[in-house]
Protein backbone atom coordinates (compact mmCIF):
# COMPACT_ATOMS: atom_id res chain seq x y z
CA UNK A 1 0.00 0.00 0.00
CA UNK A 2 1.47 3.35 -1.02
CA UNK A 3 1.80 6.20 1.47
CA UNK A 4 -0.79 8.25 -0.47
CA UNK A 5 -3.26 5.38 -0.42
CA UNK A 6 -2.68 4.82 3.29
CA UNK A 7 -3.39 8.50 3.99
CA UNK A 8 -6.59 8.35 1.93
CA UNK A 9 -7.77 5.22 3.73
CA UNK A 10 -7.14 6.57 7.21
CA UNK A 11 -8.85 9.83 6.27
CA UNK A 12 -12.32 8.21 6.24
CA UNK A 13 -12.37 7.76 10.01
CA UNK A 14 -11.14 11.32 10.51
CA UNK A 15 -13.64 12.63 7.97
CA UNK A 16 -16.55 10.91 9.71
CA UNK A 17 -15.55 12.25 13.13
CA UNK A 18 -15.06 15.72 11.66
CA UNK A 19 -18.49 15.76 9.98
CA UNK A 20 -20.18 14.50 13.15
CA UNK A 21 -18.45 17.24 15.17
CA UNK A 22 -19.56 19.92 12.70
CA UNK A 23 -23.14 18.62 12.78
CA UNK A 24 -23.05 18.69 16.59
CA UNK A 25 -21.87 22.31 16.41
CA UNK A 26 -24.59 23.19 13.90
CA UNK A 27 -27.21 21.71 16.22
CA UNK A 28 -25.78 23.70 19.13
CA UNK A 29 -26.08 26.92 17.08
CA UNK A 30 -29.66 26.02 16.17
CA UNK A 31 -30.53 25.33 19.80
CA UNK A 32 -28.92 28.62 20.84
CA UNK A 33 -30.97 30.49 18.25
CA UNK A 34 -34.10 29.16 19.94
CA UNK A 35 -32.82 29.91 23.43
CA UNK A 36 -31.92 33.50 22.46
CA UNK A 37 -35.21 34.25 20.70
CA UNK A 38 -37.39 36.68 22.63
CA UNK A 39 -40.27 36.77 21.89
CA UNK A 40 -41.20 33.75 19.75
CA UNK A 41 -41.11 35.58 16.39
CA UNK A 42 -37.32 36.24 16.35
CA UNK A 43 -36.73 32.68 17.51
CA UNK A 44 -38.81 31.37 14.64
CA UNK A 45 -37.01 33.56 12.09
CA UNK A 46 -33.61 32.44 13.38
CA UNK A 47 -34.70 28.82 13.42
CA UNK A 48 -35.89 29.02 9.82
CA UNK A 49 -32.34 29.95 8.87
CA UNK A 50 -30.45 27.63 11.22
CA UNK A 51 -32.84 24.71 10.88
CA UNK A 52 -32.74 24.86 7.11
CA UNK A 53 -28.95 24.69 7.10
CA UNK A 54 -28.69 22.09 9.86
CA UNK A 55 -31.50 19.89 8.52
CA UNK A 56 -30.10 20.03 4.98
CA UNK A 57 -26.57 19.18 6.18
CA UNK A 58 -27.70 16.26 8.36
CA UNK A 59 -29.94 14.90 5.61
CA UNK A 60 -27.13 15.14 3.02
CA UNK A 61 -24.78 13.39 5.44
CA UNK A 62 -27.13 10.44 5.93
CA UNK A 63 -28.04 10.22 2.23
CA UNK A 64 -24.34 10.10 1.33
CA UNK A 65 -23.68 7.36 3.85
CA UNK A 66 -26.64 5.33 2.57
CA UNK A 67 -25.69 5.81 -1.08
CA UNK A 68 -21.87 5.50 -0.94
CA UNK A 69 -20.33 4.61 2.41
CA UNK A 70 -22.58 1.82 3.64
CA UNK A 71 -22.56 -0.15 0.36
CA UNK A 72 -18.73 -0.01 0.33
CA UNK A 73 -18.60 -1.21 3.94
CA UNK A 74 -21.12 -3.99 3.26
CA UNK A 75 -19.07 -5.18 0.30
CA UNK A 76 -15.75 -5.21 2.16
CA UNK A 77 -17.07 -6.17 5.61
CA UNK A 78 -20.20 -8.32 5.14
CA UNK A 79 -20.28 -9.12 8.87
CA UNK A 80 -21.40 -5.50 9.43
CA UNK A 81 -24.58 -5.71 7.34
CA UNK A 82 -26.83 -5.93 10.42
CA UNK A 83 -25.10 -2.88 11.91
CA UNK A 84 -25.58 -0.98 8.65
CA UNK A 85 -29.26 -1.98 8.63
CA UNK A 86 -29.70 -0.47 12.12
CA UNK A 87 -27.86 2.68 11.08
CA UNK A 88 -30.16 3.07 8.06
CA UNK A 89 -33.16 2.67 10.36
CA UNK A 90 -31.73 5.48 12.50
CA UNK A 91 -31.39 7.61 9.38
CA UNK A 92 -35.07 7.06 8.63
CA UNK A 93 -36.07 7.93 12.21
CA UNK A 94 -33.92 11.07 12.18
CA UNK A 95 -35.45 12.12 8.83
CA UNK A 96 -38.91 11.77 10.39
CA UNK A 97 -37.86 13.89 13.39
CA UNK A 98 -36.33 16.52 11.10
CA UNK A 99 -39.55 16.70 9.09
CA UNK A 100 -41.48 17.29 12.31
CA UNK A 101 -39.05 20.01 13.35
CA UNK A 102 -39.21 21.69 9.95
CA UNK A 103 -43.02 21.61 9.99
CA UNK A 104 -43.11 23.11 13.48
CA UNK A 105 -40.71 25.89 12.46
CA UNK A 106 -42.67 26.60 9.26
CA UNK A 107 -45.95 27.00 11.13
CA UNK A 108 -44.37 29.20 13.82
CA UNK A 109 -44.81 26.78 16.71
CA UNK A 110 -44.26 28.02 20.24
CA UNK A 111 -40.66 27.95 21.54
CA UNK A 112 -41.51 25.13 23.99
CA UNK A 113 -42.66 22.90 21.11
CA UNK A 114 -39.62 23.81 19.02
CA UNK A 115 -37.41 23.01 21.99
CA UNK A 116 -39.01 19.55 22.30
CA UNK A 117 -38.39 18.86 18.62
CA UNK A 118 -34.75 19.94 18.89
CA UNK A 119 -34.23 17.84 22.01
CA UNK A 120 -35.65 14.80 20.24
CA UNK A 121 -33.39 15.31 17.23
CA UNK A 122 -30.39 15.93 19.49
CA UNK A 123 -30.95 12.78 21.54
CA UNK A 124 -31.37 10.44 18.58
CA UNK A 125 -28.61 12.10 16.56
CA UNK A 126 -26.08 11.82 19.39
CA UNK A 127 -27.01 8.22 20.13
CA UNK A 128 -26.72 7.42 16.41
CA UNK A 129 -23.34 9.16 16.03
CA UNK A 130 -21.86 7.40 19.05
CA UNK A 131 -23.07 3.98 17.89
CA UNK A 132 -21.86 4.61 14.35
CA UNK A 133 -18.45 5.72 15.58
CA UNK A 134 -18.11 2.70 17.90
CA UNK A 135 -19.07 0.30 15.14
CA UNK A 136 -17.38 1.84 12.11
CA UNK A 137 -14.32 3.96 12.95
CA UNK A 138 -11.95 0.97 13.02
CA UNK A 139 -13.36 -0.27 9.72
CA UNK A 140 -13.02 3.19 8.19
CA UNK A 141 -9.30 3.15 8.99
CA UNK A 142 -8.88 0.41 6.35
CA UNK A 143 -11.84 1.00 4.03
CA UNK A 144 -10.87 1.15 0.37
CA UNK A 145 -13.23 3.73 -1.06
CA UNK A 146 -12.11 6.05 -3.82
CA UNK A 147 -14.76 8.76 -3.60
CA UNK A 148 -15.22 12.43 -2.83
CA UNK A 149 -15.71 12.92 0.93
CA UNK A 150 -18.42 15.54 0.23
CA UNK A 151 -20.45 13.02 -1.75
CA UNK A 152 -19.95 10.30 0.86
CA UNK A 153 -20.38 12.27 4.10
CA UNK A 154 -22.16 15.46 3.12
CA UNK A 155 -21.11 19.01 2.27
CA UNK A 156 -19.71 19.90 5.68
UniProtKB/TrEMBL annotation:
InterPro entries: Dimeric_xanthone_biosynth, Hemerythrin-like. Pfam families: Hemerythrin (PF01814). Residues 15-138 form the Hemerythrin-like domain. It comes from the Bacteria. PANTHER family: EXPRESSED PROTEIN, HEMERYTHRIN-LIKE DOMAIN-CONTAINING PROTEIN. This is Hemerythrin HHE cation binding domain-containing protein. It comes from Couchioplanes caeruleus.
Amino acid sequence: MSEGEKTRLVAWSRELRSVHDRLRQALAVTRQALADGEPAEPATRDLLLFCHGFCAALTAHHEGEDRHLFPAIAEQYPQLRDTLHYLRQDHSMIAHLLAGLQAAVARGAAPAELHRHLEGVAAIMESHFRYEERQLLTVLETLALDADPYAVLGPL
